Amino acid sequence: MSEGGVKLQGMVMKASPAGEYDRRVTLLTKERGKITAFARGARRMQSALSAATVPFAMGTFHVYEGRSAYTCVAAEIREYFEKLKTDYIGACYGSYFMEFADYYAQENMEAADLLNLLYVSLLALEKEAIPDERIRYAFEVRLMTMGGEFPADITQDGSLQLPARQAFYHMITAPLGKLFSFAVTEPVMQEIITRQDQIRTRLVDRNFRSLDVLSSMLAGV
């Protein structure tokens, strides 16, 4: 790129219209954490940035840094997570993951681990063999662990069954590539859900619109 431009590895977390033809995006980047960027003309059908500046798009973004935001001038997308576009429930889960990650993401801080967590979680949503509910709760536990808020002593909590404590330990410590590779019975999964819902409600001071939408969708299934 020319002087002043940088290449950032990242993913589009959210996008919204800006002006008549532009798009405002929030990018989670490996090198600089969460940033805001404007893509000029991205809402024009013929724009090369039209498909590159939508949620879930992941790749290399060419940006110029401004006083209060970046300008995205080009992008090479290597993963669009196309299957989620035809799976409305999966897309709802993915949107929730993005909103929850946005809560913890910070500006000007390297975010490789968080970016990788989002990547493996969205990939898992595209695989029918892994229950969406398991992906969701493993994602929540690991994200809150990365954010320094998840109570690690839960693995010693005698009020939980041993399989539930073992599952929490796995979600806290497993390599990301194996994060979802645990199996529990339905009663144990319900125990995990109940406890994690309590932890999230107690420690996260925000209501997520995407979670409300997801809950409504699942209630209607």
Summed up, what is this model?
The chain has 221 residues and is an alpha+beta fold.
Please identify which CATH superfamily of the largest domain we are dealing with: Recombination protein O, C-terminal domain
By CATH, the topology of the largest domain is de novo design (two linked rop proteins)
What's the architecture of the largest domain in CATH terms?
Up-down Bundle
Structurally, the number of domains stands at: 2
Text of the CATH class of the largest domain: Mainly Alpha
Head-to-tail CA distance between termini: 49 Å
Largest sheet properties: 5 strands, mixed, barrel
Radius of gyration: 18 Å
- Please give the number of β-strands: 5
Beta-strand level of the residues, as a percent range?
15-25%
The helix content, as a percent range, equals 40-55%
- Main-sheet strand order equals 1-2-3-5-4
The residue ranges in which pLDDT falls below 50 over 5 or more consecutive positions are none
What's the average pLDDT?
95
Q: What structural class do helix, strand and pairing data support?
A: alpha+beta
* Annotation field: number of helices: 7
Q: What is the 3D form?
A: elongated
Order of SSEs: EEEEEHHHHHHH
Describe the fold and architecture.
With 221 residues, the chain is α+β, with helices and mostly antiparallel strands. The protein is built from seven helices and five strands. It has a five-stranded mixed β-barrel. The chain is elongated, with a radius of gyration of 18 Å. The model has no long low-confidence stretch (mean pLDDT 95).
